[in-house]
Amino acid sequence: MYGKCNKVSCDPACEEKELNDHLFYLAFENSVCNDYVTEKFWRLRKLIVPIVLNRQIYRNLGIPDDVYIAANDFSSPQSLVKHLQYLSSNREEYLKYFDWTKRYKKTITKFDVFCDFCRLAHLEPNGEKIQNIVDWISPVIYMKNDIFGKIMKNGAFLVFTTCSESL
């Protein structure tokens, strides 16, 4: 196990080797929130099956069920381990977790995606104006207990600025 608690680090080369040597990895969140997916989940660019804590969080975000294994689907850690052992010895069943690669494309998002969004938003000055963002945004996008949900619930509004402006 690697991480701050164990004080054992794993550089990118170490991580690459570990991911290549295993069939599954734990993609557990540091905090369980209805609208939070850990960055660990997005190692999907590797063909390895993530194990997450709570299926409903990923389902609410539209992530297909057959992409990951959810720990809360099992009655005990032992039953989860039995399932992992079954998949490890049954290649055909294990490979079903990669059927998503036939339907979706794996891409690496540029880190300046928000600046790209800003540029696109400013290309169309006469675009549709959203009068009430709460009505426009799907409730799945934000939850009542997160900071965004609290802002929206209180009727606050968002101000979009150009990427060159500091926040």
Automatic annotation (TrEMBL):
One of its GO terms (cellular component) is Golgi membrane. Belongs to the glycosyltransferase 10 family. It comes from the Eukaryota. SUPFAM superfamilies: UDP-Glycosyltransferase/glycogen phosphorylase. Its EC number is 2.4.1.-. The lineage of its organism: Eukaryota, Metazoa, Ecdysozoa, Nematoda, Chromadorea. Its main location: Golgi. It is found in: Golgi apparatus membrane; Golgi apparatus, Golgi stack membrane. Keywords: Glycosyltransferase, Golgi apparatus, Membrane, Transferase, Transmembrane. Residues 1-136 form the Fucosyltransferase C-terminal domain. PANTHER family: ALPHA-(1,3)-FUCOSYLTRANSFERASE C-RELATED (PTHR48438). It is an enzyme of class 2 (transferase). Pfam families: Glyco_transf_10. This is Fucosyltransferase. It is a single-pass type II membrane protein. GO terms for molecular function: fucosyltransferase activity. InterPro entries: Glyco_tran_10_C (IPR055270), Glyco_trans_10 (IPR001503), GT10-like_C_sf (IPR038577).
